[in-house]
Amino acid sequence: MRESKSKYQNEKVQNALSTLPDSPGVYLFKDEEGTIIYIGKALSLKSRVRSYWLENSVRERPKLAVLMPKVADVNIIVTNSEKEALLLEANLVRQHMPRYNVTLKDDKRYPWLAITYDVAFPRLVMVRDPQKYKKENPKSRVFGPYVETGMMWDTVRVLRKVFPMRQRKSPLFKDRPCMNYYIGLCLGPCQKLVTEPDYLQMVGQVEMFLAGRQTEVLTLLKQEMEAASEQMEYEKAAKVRDRLRALETVIEKQTVMFKDKKVNQDIVAEAHANKLIAICMMRVREGKLISSETVCLPLMDRTSWDEAYQSFIDLYYTSVEDIGVPHEVMLQHRLDDESALAEVLQAKAKHVVKVGIPQRGGKVKMIDMAKKNAELALEKEITEKQEADAKVVRLLSHMQEELGTSKPPRRIECFDISNIQGTDNVASMVVFEDGQPKKSDYRRFKIRAVEGVANDFASMKEVVGRRYSRLQKEDKPFPDLIIIDGGKGQLNAAVEALEELNIKDIDIIGLAKKQEEVYKPGNPRPLLISRRSEALHVLQRTRDEAHRFAITFHRKLRAKRSLMSGLDLLPGVGESRRKLLIKHLGTFEKIKQASLEELMAVPGLPKNVAASIFAALSAGKEDKKNASDKASENGVGDETIGDNEDDSGEKLYDDADDESDELEGVEGEDDAEGEVEVEVVVEGYGDSTTLRVAESSPKKSED
């Protein structure tokens, strides 16, 4: 097939195509700005990459009509084998999230369960990035990923009932266990009510259960119950018996698929419509169906269903841990890289793994069952989407009528100001599309013109002017509606900023907090909107989200400032050494907990200064311990940290904050769940302040 010298090939692309090796590897397509927009793998880079420019490629793959005009450069990474190419491609896709690759769950990671073996009495926690978590906690074991979050929490509820592992990161009380102990959800290791060997024995059973070795767990529990009974530890035997019965009840509900208890299989099938694919993954362990999960993925940019099916399988199985690998992966459709995928799984599991399409018998029936589940999920997703679309149309029409806007407000941008007496003066902008938040478009602003004075009007004028002057310069579309968090004063300031930019065709309103009054420019009286109005509820949700986002950024800056001033009080620490400590140790908590050897290992930090810092921090810890003991005597409990939080400290210092003023904010699924209590204090050198710091940090600068 002849290679086309089309307009899609600039000089840089032509040079790259002429030097491609006939080797396995990964290729990266970049746009004119150097952003990676697509990543692929190949057994032969020369053949595969050149095929994108063949004359019939666009006809066979409609997605290329969208992708290829944007390709301005091609980079390659040569690997030793197709297996290495598969692993590298999956890692790069997860890292860069290219625009035209199929990514999972709207670019958010699936949840995993981890057992924290790095501590004396391990916990079961949820993590989103297993590789990062394993790097920071090398002894931990992770299980997953879980395609359906609800399925994961169902598993957690069962485990907490049968295996009462501790849930709190730190004890709630010094002299007694928390409520979890009294309701049978914890064994009380914080009060030494269980020995470490007995506790670890139970944790080992949790690991077996998560790995699908349920029969083995039942056998061990029976042996434990009988041993306790023989030693006349009847209370312990009764507790084990109750756990055994609870587990048997769960296992009895699982469907027996094969008489052979050695059968360990994953079954993956799909069903697809025009712009949507549903993929069902069923897991059979010890002959029983232990889970069936379905995920629906949109087919964006003319992506074909078969590409989405293969991408899902590659991304899923290249991330799965060794203990989650079955003996066989049964597929509905053939993959281009079946042999490479089998090699990857075998290397992880240390046993033979078959990957392929079943031809006859019970295995074909299993594929049919998974396909039917996928079809049902697809039908449900389509119906729900149609209903949701109809609801959005009604909502936007209602909002247009209630607010008197020129068009339905599909895209809303809302601004809020946050400061304390003019310090750390920041603003936020959140975006709602079709009544739902679009977090990838959120923005944070540092107010430039007003500092040290609480002037919300000037701050609002500045941030609105900056936002829309940028959109003017970049010729980007404007929102349908602007919401200003505030009353007539803030609204007038925003309108003045728009008028100076000669922007007159955007609807803008102000939403005052006290009475939830809605103001429009030129009208001194608020609009009469019912408190039960759905339109008002959308405005309130948008305003509240902008407030939350602004407060999060403000607290982060305040925490950073507190950290910097606290470090400056350490002996021998100036600006350069402060940056050294932050760069190499990351968080204030890690600096406080660092050993003398770790401080001395910081490049560029003199050993005598490291010793002085260590001595000062140690003295502060002793002062805090004495104060804590005194508080305990007076009945004051310890502060606690939530169940599902990372063990790692939050990085408070962010270089990007100092270099720019408008920042893109991409939050997690729910910032409220991801907040951690961070105590910012240098003991013995300053006052203690407790701050709430969001997990996410700005990804990149806009200007």
Write up what this structure looks like.
This protein has 703 residues and is an alpha+beta fold. The protein is built from 22 helices and 23 strands. β9 (276-285) and β10 (288-298) form a beta hairpin. α10 runs antiparallel to α11 (234-252) and α15 (456-473) runs parallel beside α16. The longest helix is centred in the middle third of the chain and has 42 residues, at 362-403. The chain is globular.
Which structural class should the secondary elements be placed in?
alpha+beta
Oligomer type: single chain
Radius of gyration: 29 Å
Biggest sheet features: 9 strands, mixed
Distance between the termini: 46 Å
Give the rounded overall mean pLDDT. Answer: 78
CATH architecture of the largest domain: Orthogonal Bundle
**Count of DSSP-assigned helices:** 22
- Give the helix proportion (percent range): 40-55%
Name the overall outline.
globular
CATH superfamily of the largest domain: 5' to 3' exonuclease, C-terminal subdomain
CATH topology of the largest domain: DNA polymerase, domain 1
Give the total of domains: 5
- Taking pLDDT < 50 over at least 5 consecutive residues as the criterion, the unreliable ranges are 1-5, 627-703
- DSSP E strands, number: 23
* CATH C-level name of the largest domain: Mainly Alpha
What proportion of the residues form beta strands (DSSP E)? 15-25%
